[in-house]
Amino acid sequence: MSHLPIKSDFTRALDDGVDGTLASASAVAAAAPDAEPIIVFDRVFIAFDDNAVLEDVSFHVDRGQTLCILGRSGVGKSVSLRILMGFLKPDSGSVRVDGKEITGYTEDEMQEVRKHITMVFQNGALFDSLSVRENVAFPLRERGGLDEEQVQQIVDRLIGLVGADDVVDDLPASLSTGRRRAVAMARALASQPEVVLYDEPTTMVDPIIARRLGDIIQRLKRQLGFTSIVVTHDMRFAKRLADTVLFLHQGHAAYFGPLAGFLDSEDPHIREFLTLDAYVLPGV
Ligand SMILES: Nc1ncnc2c1ncn2[C@@H]1O[C@H](COP(=O)(O)OP(=O)(O)OP(=O)(O)O)[C@@H](O)[C@H]1O
Ligand SMILES: [Mg+2]
What are the tens digits of pLDDT across the range 218-230? Predict the structure, then answer.
């Protein structure tokens, strides 16, 4: 079995992250302007029976950038993430990760891709019978090649990064939703992915926890050069995090581009979405 090396920048930036200071710029992978985006959706279609969910959806994410996927309930936001993880196959179109076409990949080939792309599930998907510490250690033990002291060092840093130091020996069931999600992030990071997908990270958590989760995502981007895709209903959250926005509406990418262009858009569906957001908190 081959072991992935622990990247030196990864551990160094984790140290800096615990101190709350910025890591050296070298930790952030600067993409060349003409580099192939790390994620590409090109004319993707998917239907369930006669329910056409994505019809000709294209977007991309450059390395080190954060894309927020927005849109009303049922529009295909989670489906898009599941296609990227290979849990669903599109009916047609191309999905490329780091330049490689993944639509025809077998489950074994997808396992390789999932070393680079990981998803933070809404419920945290933690192992109930393992402590927070053991949950975060799990991916490190899985990948092998580390002695116990190294595992514990990295686990301590990750837990510090997400602010869960005081619950390391607790079981997931005793944690609040926000805490569970923070621990789930720490565990996702332990596998050293390059791309992290978040499905509604702020649903069911209070605004202070939401802010903290947003801080973590920002810090991962600045200090470790992570690429993120964040599905959210929360416009405040999106405004803080997004470099680019994909707005899905009736199966189409009604908007894909920089955040500023989305906020200024004259499209009536986007205006309605933004206006409604000012009055209600969907999903609560
Ligand atoms: N495995 C599946 N089988 C059949 N239909 C599915 C499946 N997964 C998703 N769908 C349908 O696809 C549509 C889009 O679902 P999706 O979960 O992506 O919505 P969403 O945009 O994430 O909505 P929400 O904001 O409520 O989470 C829905 O109509 C859903 O019922
Ligand atoms: Mg969803």
Answer: 888 888 888 999 9
